[in-house]
Write the structure tokens for this entry.
Amino acid sequence: MRIEGVPASAGYAEGSLFDLDQPPAGYEAKAGAAEERAALEGAIGKAVGRLAALIETADGDAAGILEFHIAMLEDDALGGPAFASIASGQPADAAWRAALDGEIAGYEASDQDYFRARAADLRDIRDQVLRALSEDSEAAAPPGAILYGEDIAPTRFLETDWSKGGGIALRRGSAASHVAMLARSRGVPMVVGLGAAAESLTGVALLDAERGGIVFSPSPAEIEAFRQAAASFADRQGAARTFLTEPAATKTGTAVRVQVNIAYPTDVEGIDIATCDGVGLMRTEFLFGKALPDEETQYHAYRKVLEWAGDKPVTIRTVDAGGDKPVPGFTVEETNPFLGLRGIRLSLARRDIFRVQIRALLRAAIHGNLKVMFPMIATPDEYAQAAALFAGEQAALAAEGVAHRLPPLGIMVEVPSVALAPEAFADVAFFSIGSNDLTQYVMAAARDNAAVAHLNSVRHPAVLRLIAAVADFGREKAIPVSLCGDAGGDPAAIPALLEAGLRDLSVAPTQLAMAKAAIADVAV
Ligand code: PEP
Ligand code: MG
């Protein structure tokens, strides 16, 4: 039986199924409320201790997630309702479970993907404490297993030994979750949105996280076909690695620039700058976490990336909060956030916050080859206002005698109005096509909704025609055009993008080798 889902981290895994949803072992009730309270306090402390130990071995992103979990566990507001229930006679495990389940239900009911994805973090915290209460650590998945369940907690992912392979198959889950991000960066195959449950959780399953599906109780013919597909994927990856150190070029020798997309300054630590042509997109909204980052924090984050890149260009995008990327204290609740106050619209509405970022960028610019671009531009007036803010802050820094430089200012092409009428933007320094948003707006199909994923194709002629028109316009006016949406790293989309006239792509670091290999196969 094959069930279709959504690929969240490409790859193949063949292995025995491991049930992620096994209930934690039982808890023995204590003599009275005071003992129950002490048991819960002790369990929370133990969970914090385990997380702190995990942080010791975690890298940047993983450590950030674990720190977030510790902060939540140490927040008195989270445990408050549980301690109140204990005082009125409930045992610690039931009190904690009920309190956390209530909180989780609130997150799950959100209409925003970001908050639904955070429900997995809360389930993780709930189970960590339940586990500590029952003193019985969760059975570890055997090496190479396919972890199957509703959703998976980030700590569960980090505690699992992936050195022998294995994968993750989720009935729900989200490609936007923290775990999906970790799986992509560690190369663990992962499929989400499988919906229906397996009839039996015993035996071997085949996880196809390239196309997105899982086969339970496979027939010999299915196993044979799967192994061929997995071998082909491994061959393609192996062959691609030989392309990594070479500049990208097509079959006919046309040079193509390939840059990388990053989100955190620490992302550059695992990338050899010699393997790419710079940073085509740094998404700065992820720096805007629980608190708005101040000028110094931003300055150091941007400077780190610029110094890493040396003289290669680093294109930093001003904060694109809103849509599926809410930022507490900045974004607003909206019924249709993808069509609302996001990107440059929000930055222009909250100039106090925008000016801090602009100052940090102007100061960081002296440390490398910086370019800055604005997200979600729809009209030339928005660009003019944003550019005027840069000029204003530049004058202010000059008056204060602070070292700075004005970088070239460009725009994202992701709203159809810009792609349809680029002539209104003849004075920008460069265009960067955001194919993720451009596609969702042209096709009227939300990028985070699995039910309309089939419509969300950059290869639809309507989307490709717009991309070709922007590439033509750029060539005619000598304005550089690149593409930084996910399609740039998709080997299936690369031929169409090059045929549309693009010669500059920016891709996720893990896609760099495969993208260069795919480029070498195109005759343009
Ligand atoms: C895009 O829309 O293609 C893009 C690169 O921006 P983001 O995915 O951050 O919206
Ligand atoms: Mg976008």
User: Anything to note?
Assistant: Residues 33-57 form the longest helix (25 residues). The first strand starts at residue 2 and ends at 4. The CA atoms of residues 279 and 314 lie 5 Å apart.
